[in-house]
Amino acid sequence: MKQKTDTDQPKQVSWRSLILSIVATGVVVAVLVTGIGLRLIGREGLSILQAQHLIESKFVGETEQSTDLTLSHMVTGLNDRWSYYLTRAGYEQEKGMRANAYVGIGVTVIVEEDGIRIGSVKEKSPAAEAGISADEIIRSVNGTKINQENGSDCMNAMRGKAGTSVSLEIENTAGELRIVAVERGELVVDSVRSEMLDGHIGYVQVENFYEGSAAAFKEA
Q1: C-alpha span between 143 and 135 (Å, rounded)
Q2: Of 88, 108, 117, 121, which has the highest C-beta tally within 10 A?
Q3: Given a cut of 60, is residue 13 above it in pLDDT?
Q4: Which distant-in-sequence residues (6+ apart) come within 8 Å of 149 by Cβ?
């Protein structure tokens, strides 16, 4: 009969070796993740993530809007008039506008360096009822003065839930300022207008190419 010897006993792994293995594995994983992160978003992207982590972990106060503000300033820094950042609420409003139905005050606008110029005012809209006219300039929204950096943010601030109000500082064409409170409402955009002119000439005006515009153009 064969007796068991020390070599027949199962080898036991020490806790120290196990912990060192776990730490080494963690280090390797961290290096791999960092390398992949650098390839995907670059060093600037990692810096932004680190800054966000520090803000959320160290800052004493509210940080809910920090991400939206950071992304908004990043897009504004592109200096591209066609690029702008939308919050979740702003994105929902944008989808409504592209469906030619949205909640707002009923104006088309052009963001300028120190104000938001009103391009047109929809008939029977909250803006029209408040006495706002085309070519007037919005100088502040809810007390925030408009400048080159925050123009898009102020434009988004005019949107919101139906029944709520927004305070606008308006400058008319004579340079006179006034404060106007406008209640936001649900609006449907008449994107196509048509009329028959003298000489049997048909005139069709298309304001946008969003949902329903093509069908309305055919009917016109």
Answers
A1: 21
A2: 121
A3: no
A4: 73, 76
